[in-house]
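seq:
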Amino acid sequence: MKLGIVGSGMIVRDLLSFIHDIPSIELIHISGTKRSEDILKDIYEKHGFQRYSTSYDDLLNDKEVDTIYVALPNHLHYQYTKQALEVYKNVILEKPLTSTIEEAKELMQLAVKNKVFLWEAITNQYLPNFYKIKELLPTLGNIKIVECNYSQYSSRYNAFKEGNILPAFDYTKSGGALMDLNIYNIHFVVGLFGKPMNVEYYPNIEKGIDTSGILILDYDTFKCVCIGSKDCKAPLSNNIQGDKGCIHIRMPVSIIEQFDVFMNDGVNQTFNKNKDVHRMYEEFVAFENMYQSNDYKQCYNMLEHSMVVAEIQTVARRKAGVIFPADNQTQL
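struct:
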């Protein structure tokens, strides 16, 4: 895979901290804005890129690049990815996939039409501990309650309260707690249980954005609560409760460093199948493996999963009155 990157924020720094451990991924081109040129040049020099640019067109027209990693604010995901897919570039798109389900469906249709890869970069779907949880689900008996809580006080919330609205708290940039933190919970639950029957969202809204909120997913035979908060914090706890036992995760489901199984008969176990690597490592290994083996089927299967997640967040926001500019283009 010959990789180009658009963006130079923290998530790009995370990627570059481990990407050299996947030698079959070659860093070719990093692109950004004129304003970030000094940062781009520094990254280019330190990490062995062949070139950098301050024009996205330069990256799109780079014939050596076959895959573009889009690491930009949420509201830019759709347009930048669409442009890449139109010129037959594969795309790794940071979560959340897009601002709306309509945008997500359009990108998927374009990827399939042009027979290119489109991956949503979402850590938990590729972690060995996630696969192990999926394997152990039947041992819990009939699932009754699922609860996920990702509450992390954001330093940007202080600025937000003072009137300095950064992208994470800007409804015009598709920000908010649902899109930033609760999206991990949604991916986790959908990856284990599929599409719910009904979705409701009860957010705390300030200045048009959800700074925290409670998402209710109804799976008929069991109920799920997903909490995402950027305006307050709490000890993190995630539980899958069945009538024979419970799986308990003491950290965000974005990383799942380990988990406990507590059975009704008193047998308790702690599991950790993850490797001692960066949380993003496994997803990029999976993308590279699909790329090398031309496994479009697996890629598009994962995209179907992403469509369910995109639909949940879209329906939830619209019901609750958290509206992005992209929502005004089309409605469900």
